[in-house]
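User: These chains co-purify. Model them together.
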Amino acid sequence: MSEKKTQKNTKPNVLGEMIIPLFGILFTSYYFFTIIDSPWTAQVNAFIVGSILFLICALFFIRKFHAVRVNRAVCMLKYDRLLPAMRTRQTGFIILTIGYLLFVELLGYTLATIIFFFSSMSLLDGGQKMAAKFTLSIIMAGVGYVVFILLFETRLPEGLIEKILQEGLK
Amino acid sequence: MTKLTMKRRSFIKTSAAAAGGLMIGGGLATPALASYPDRNIDVIIPTREGGGADRLFRAFTSLWKNHMNTNFEPGFFPGASGRVGYEVYMGKYKPDAYSLIFGNMGPEVLNWAVKAPSFNIDDYIYFNRVDTDPGCVFVGAESKFKTIDDIVSEGKKRTLNVGTSRLAHPASIGILALGEHTGAKFNLVPLSGGKNTVAGAVTLEMDFCVLTSGSVIKAADACRTMLVFNDKNVAGEKLDNAPTMNDYFGTKLPAMFSARAFGIHKAAVDAHPDRFEMLQKTGKKAFDDPGFKDAFLKSKGFWPYANYGGVKECAEFKSAMLEMGERFKPLLTGK
Amino acid sequence: MTIDANFFLELFFHQLGLWWVVIPSIFLGLIVGGIPGFSAANTIIVLLPFTFLMEVEVGLVFMIALYCSSRLGAGIPAILVNIPGTAGAAATPLDGYPMAKQGFGQRALSISFVSSILGGLLTTVIALITMPWLARVGFYMHSVEMVVVMLFGISLIASVATKDTIKGLIAGFVGLMIGSIGADHVYATPRGTMGFLELYDGVPLIPALVGLFAISEAFMVIESGSFLSKDRVQQVQNASWAETFYGVKLTLKRWFHVGWTSLIGLVIGVIPGAGAAIASFVAYQQSRAFSKTPEAYGKGHIEGLIAPEAANNGVTAGTLIPLMVLGIPGGATAAIMMVVMQYQGVPTGPGLFTERPDLGYGVFMAMFVTYLLMSFTILPMSRYMSRVTLVSTVYMSPIIIAFTLVGSFVPREYMFDMYLAFGFGVLGYIARKTGYHVAAILIGVILGPLLEQYMLRALKMSGGDATVLFSSTLGNFLWVILIATLVLPSWLNKKKAKSEQ
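Assistant: Joint model of the three components:
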């Protein structure tokens, strides 16, 4: 994660900037691998676009490498800053989002959404006004239930709450 | 050939997720009880909700449910020209006759000829065919071509560009067969879907187009039909009384249909022949039910295309499609 | 029936008499347009059974009002919280969101509404008058010409990241590569799908849209705790009605800009299958190319907001023309309208205007009336809507995440699409943190597949001969304009700078 953070030095750290071009190169290489034996129609666009991407990335790397060489920029991963950089509410929030995605099928849309709202709101403001937040979480998830499931009949994952509400509505 | 092989586990993981609530009733089935059916029957529809298959499914099951005394619950799995739905059905649903697939035997079987699925294609059986919509050759209203002869003679002078919804489609096979028979040169250009294919003909970007005739009938005066890939032009005037290929050119091409039918695991048929028997009998009754015509027309269907077919007809058609797919494989895959 | 001024006047008052259908549909359209994943098309599908029950005339008015207002509704979250509800609104946040972040959300909404309404009214009138001729556009704009039109939009990649062009290009080309995922358009060979059948038809747009814009934004704004800085909060709290009127005034002053950008939308809309996304990007690109202050774009420039909004509302009238005149639907909503019309036994295509002119012209009149009624009903709401930016990110971020994830689920109902949206969110977050422009990635993802589709079609028709791209007169004319709009502005700027020196 720390690569994402540009270090607050006087000289810019170019390490973070490398992630997107590296991702592009890796993905394009994989993409080329999938079309080696394909008909020309599958190849023509990707070869044009991918080659240009390789070229621009090469230019970019040369430019950044030069900047580091002439001491106008640095390229390093500072381990001592790694942990503090990760101990943010953002990281917690991203983890909660992953948790939401993982548990929404198990718990059903409504219950998972209530838990997600409540836990993330509590995390983000440091746990103030818990009762109000709990009520808000229920209301917002309820709005989601009414709009998405009842009105638009979206087949969101169902859990205990949806089953109870369905029975109740019957 | 691409190196891509379907990572079954990862796919199943996601598709199982997508199945969501459906799985509760289908995949994690309760032990079979003596009286069949004792719960809803899940039906996988490998196209989008609200499309033609959905409308036809609702029309047919609105009658069939009375004869089966249970509800049919649709689950939509669009994508990859139907492949997603079939993979989900064959990979995730228990073969207990409590789950079916409502597919299109034409283009979806041709898929397998082009690229085999992860399951054995003999592991499922089609039955209760509900409709047959033949492919046809048509031009835009302002096209210079007046008859199929004009097209063929022009095709002998230069390669004509032919719009189609996709290569692996019965109508595409039909025109390739015509080219083979007459020596006319046709270059198939896939236009991604029926709507674009009609547009390709109307705006004259293509010399002419091929498509299932139901969509051409809907385009009414915007198009003119030149040839039908069936033994008889049952639509008559709606398709400008166009001749059929077999009549006009003396060929023996199997009917190039888009044909919607139900499919079931072969394992379910073997394990529960009584259930399958019931599904077939009641399906036929539903089709013959006078109420079906009303429901079919309400679903915006074209009644002459409602055409029942049993296991035998479906199997013959499936095998004809596979054979034709194999015959034209190099043209359909570019290899 | 004589088609004269009297006929149109009667038609106008008749459609106005259906206000009881139009106004509720406008509000429904605003909601479905604003939530990513929902659209006029899928709402009409859900409500199809009711539509069939309505009289054909009422059903059409309902669909038209829903269609127009959903287009306008998609711009609201795009401006306020950087969530374009549809691909057609993807160019709106480029300048709309920076305006909202500067505390001018109310003004930005007002500009967006007025340019949408004016663009909609103008193009509806033009469509009514020039329908038979406009319908011919599709006869000339074939694959070769569309390749050039796509390049107009894609060339934006180079200009959205003005600070660092090379990074803009990297982002754009990464987007183009991601957009190339899926089966090839001719032989359906799967490419770059990582084994997921769900990616066989290409990267679904809504997950990419909400991931790159909304989810990454939700992660970003947590840092500051608010969408606005402290002084801007005060500014929004103190904003009065005058702010709305000021937005109206600013837009009306630029009436000419609204006019020509909405015409771009109308013409692109007429081409079957083209759609609002390409229209709004092309309009934005053209607006920037001809601007005296291109450097101000992307930072909250008024014309940068007017262009995409006027254009995507111009598309609305455009997509109906091929349906009405030729009988071929220009887009998803038009296709469903065709189903409804056929169900009711109403002909589409040339027959419509001879057999039922009241319905043929009535559709466009309904559109005119909808835009007119929207100016009274929606414009005043801008003041209250803009308050959304005052809500703390403690509440907004979780709400954005939960609702946009559902939005990405809705079109196909695959959990996979939720995971994909999150993946795009992480990609967008990394891009933002490391100085890459997410809009450049998105332009690649949206326009890349369209460019490939048209290019392959042209190449397949020519048997693989690339010179086909320069084989048509209109196409060559468009190539010249494209090159001119790319080269001329910078050449003129350099010349100007030289003469100033």
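The interface with chain B takes residues 33-42, 105, 155-158 of chain A (CB under 8 Å).
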